[in-house]
Each structure stands twice: as C-alpha cells, then as structure tokens.
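Fold it.
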Amino acid sequence: MITTRTTDNTGGNASNHVSDSSTPIQPFEWLTSPESIGGLVRTQVLLPSGNGAHAPRALHIGCGSSTVGEYLVQALRFGHVLNVDKDGETLGGMEARWNEMQRAAKQEENPQLASAMEFRCLDYTTERLPEGCADSFDLVVDKSTLDCTLCSDCAATASFLMEIYRTLRRPTCDPIGDANDDSSNGRNGGVYMVVSFHEIDLILPLVRDLPGANWTVTHTTMERQVECVATNARGYGSSSSSSSNDDNFGTAASAERQARKPLNVLIARRERGEPLELDFDAVVGHVQEVNDRWFRDEQPLLTEERISELGRAFGVVVGGSSNHDGHDEAGLPSSPPSEQRTTAAAMGVSRVLPLRDAYGVVFTEAEREHLTFEHFLEDWEAFRLEDASANANEPEGTMDFDLALRFLEANQ
C-alpha cells in the first residue's frame, strides 16, 4: 500500500505540459453525452447560484477527448472550464479543436470566450492542481474517472477524492448582486457530479462517508448513452441518443435504451466549515474498507455455487449440494466454503489446466470483460510471490482446483 502522496502545487513540473499538437481530434464520449448532464447542471449548479452575477467555474476531471467542457462554456455559459487529464497528446488535440472552433466562429476578437477553456496535463492521483484552484470550482464533472481510479490502488483513489474536495468552492454568506434584493442569499457550495457504472452500494458509501468531508450527497440515475459522437452546429459533441436529464424531456426512450443498465449519478454539494484538506491516511483506510466490504459482502468471489462449478471444471467432487436451509441432500449441515475446499482437495485428483484454460474456467464471462488475460497473469505472478507453495506440486504455468480456490481467496 502506498503511504505517501505528491504535494507539488507549483503547477510548473514537466507533467503539466500539454502537447503542442496542432491537429484537432475526433471527440469520444464515455458513458454519456454532454447534453445528458445539462438538466442536472442547471438544477444543481446554475439555478441555485443566485441572480447570475457570478459566472460559474468548472473542473472537468479526466476529460480525455470529451466535449463536456465545450458544452459547459457554449451552451450553459460557464465562465471558465479547466480540463484536466494525464494524456498530454489528447489534451493537445482537444485544445487545437477548441482554437479551430473559435477561428471558424470568428471569436478571436472575444478574448473572454477564447480563454474560457483551459487544458492542463496532470496525474490527478499523485499530483495537485495549483493552490489557486483550491476552494474555487462551482462544479467538478467526473464521467467515470473515479471508476478508473478504483482499478488502481487505494492511495490513488484517496488522492483523487482529496483533490476533488480541496477544489470545491465552499458556500459564502456574501450577497450576490443588489444588497436590497431579498433573493440574494449568497453563493452555494460547489458540486461534485459523479457519473459511474459501478453499483450504488459501492460508489455511494465511498463518496458519502468520506472521512472529514463536509458535503451532502444525493443519488439519481441516468440512461447510458450510445457512444456515437457527432458534431452539432455549436461544435460540441452530441450523442445519437438522449436521457431524461437533458433538454429534450419529452423524448420517448426506445426499448433498447430501456434495457440498458442505468448509470448511477452522485451529487455531492460542499457545505460550510472546515477542513479544506482531508487526512490522507484516514481516506486511504476508508477506501480500503469500502472496497473490502463490497467485495466480501456484495460480490464474494467464493460462493458454494462457484466452488461446485469449479469442482466440475477441474474434475473433483466438492460434496453434497446444499438446499435452501443450508443442509445437503442427506439432511446434514453443508460445509462452509473453506471446509469444502479441504474436502474437495482430498476427494480425487484434480485436472491440471494451462493458465489460459484456467482463466476461462475461474472467471465468468462478465468478469473477463473487466479482467483481461494479461492482467490475470500479473495477479497470478503476484500470487506466486506471496504463496510459496503455489507451484510446488504443479508444472509452471498451470493451475489445479486447490490452487484456483487459493488464488480466488487471495484476490477476494
């Protein structure tokens, strides 16, 4: 586990460089289109912000080649959008695209609009934005970037969430606009909008219960969009489908879209008070605890059914099948998974499978969509280093039933 994090806030290191690419690139929208979040941005950020005297600022974290930033500036009139990603070449292409759009629209004479979009290359899991970005954004848009950090280590996710929290604007009691206007109630706290493909039982406690975070978190859903991006008249990407959160509220969803698994959307609004900075060790521990609880309680790798299926695949007898009251066919209490493993290993000789074949047996089709064979091999090598007996009795590059169960237990 990583226990340190980079705290460079100068903004001047080499990794902040955006490629000098002058070739615009074709946008790609992951999970959902820019328009699909428009309704939520209006109701959660723009409408509560007062009489409009303040031009809102947004951070698009892990922007890639998405046109969310363009949409916020052109359609929703945000005053400034900072687009951050660790891929400098992609950022360079998107910056070139923005500059070309301004020239085509003859906006060079409007420096305010031209400078509304900023691009910064930064690894948000290890680096910090300049101090001027702290307590400054009315909106942070995250389309599955938090999802990506969860594929890394807990420290990466912790650093990412801490940086998001640090940059959200805290609410103020200063009146906006005319002091004699009773509707002037100050500026609301910034909003962290997370669009995630993860299950709500994982993603909600991760954000809602972040140690030390003073924010309120609400949950909604939106339909997954078709990732076919065209360029509309304004220039920003437009998906071939829409959702109930965009401007076309009356559009009927097709049967195909209704069948899609909905995306989870979290709205975390910054509240008053301290701290601005969160405790790194506490956040790392929280991320680890939430992950462990989710995979142990909600998505266990080793269930009785799975052990039985693995036994059949490896040619061993696991024991009597369990009925609904936890007893086997003979009426005796069924063994827990750990005892079943011992029994199975003692009842016959397991087949020994090459790792390529074992990969197809040990993991379901859905799991293989997220865990490639190459990543499986990396996990296997790490398992071999931790388990000295992993290859004691088998040829290298193979797996038997007992090893399969120990491997799954180690990676639970």
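The domain at 14-298 is CATH 3.40.50.150 (Rossmann fold).
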